[in-house]
Structure formats: C-alpha cells, structure tokens
Input
Amino acid sequence: MAYKHLSLEERHYLELELKAGTSLNNLAEKLSRSPSTVSRELKRNKGLLGYRHKQAN
Output
C-alpha cells in the first residue's frame, strides 16, 4: 500500500473539527484514515498556534 498524503480539503476539515473538540478516533473514522495517520499529521504540523491546514500543506 502506497503512502497517500492528506488533501488540502482533508486538512481543512481536520483543523475545523479539532477546534470543535472532536476526538482523534472520530476524526480518523470520518476521514476514512487510521488514527495513527491523523496523529502523525498533527504531530508533524502542530505549531505554537496549533494545527493550521495552510501551514501543513
């Protein structure tokens, strides 16, 4: 299975849902991704101001 990056739309959705307080497991399910993928995305792209989709892209 090849690694597939999150799209800009998925990252934007991720940012909005995080601000709304949605859990990582629920986010992963809604995006049809594994929880570890969502967790890695946040770990790699979270700055002092939190997760921002444009910065992550």
In short: Residues 25 and 35 are 6 Å apart (CA to CA). DSSP finds four helices and two strands in the chain.
